[in-house]
NADH kinase (Sesamum angolense), 246 residues
Amino acid sequence: MVRKRLLLLLKPFDAYPSHELAAVSSSNNRKVLRFLYDRMLVHRNAINFCRNILMKKAVNSRVVFRSDLSQPIHDVDLVITIGGDGTLLQASHLMNDSIPVLGVNSDPTRPDEVEKFSEEFDATRSTGYLCAATADNFEQMLDDILENRSEPSELARIAVNLNSKPISTSALNDVLLAHPCPSRASRFSFRIVQNGEPSSSLLHSRSSGLRVSTAAGSTAAMLSAGGFEMPILSKELQYMRGVPIY
């Protein structure tokens, strides 16, 4: 397939002006601000690097910051997100399964940096679990896609009906069913249905909510809550009831 029309979706810049670093009295705070400022620079450099690569290719690319994107994505052959998993997930909310997406992790975590500052602050950068590329291998991955040497992987998403009406957005990560106020209890009943047939009895719960995740979402909030990581291409779902409230 020929892919000529590309959409470049960017995570916005976080503003940490360098001149403010000198005004911070605490040494530790200066380190944190310097770290955040460096993250912004790394992200900006990754964007510029990827845009320069695209200028050398026989493609037409359009650039949009994710904060400016609110309408469904169409009339493109490939979406490239530059940021982290959040940017890719936002793109997935506005596109159907006919458009592939390439996630570029613009600011990968550096293990040596995490260890160096472990006693001072959390120096974790972007996990980028869903991102297949970084600036280091972006051109090679792009060439493989444009020259049809690479096929996209198909990840499962969750379709949701609300009051028997389908919601237009399918969830790539997970769905949380809960009271709008996190401190309030949610009372609900549910059962598992497979191939149109019930495979469990009706389960009743009064808790902080119900989370259902895809394989792609199994490494995010689900894993933090005590779930397990699933193979990324699995079509199975995982669910977990929240904290019981009596």
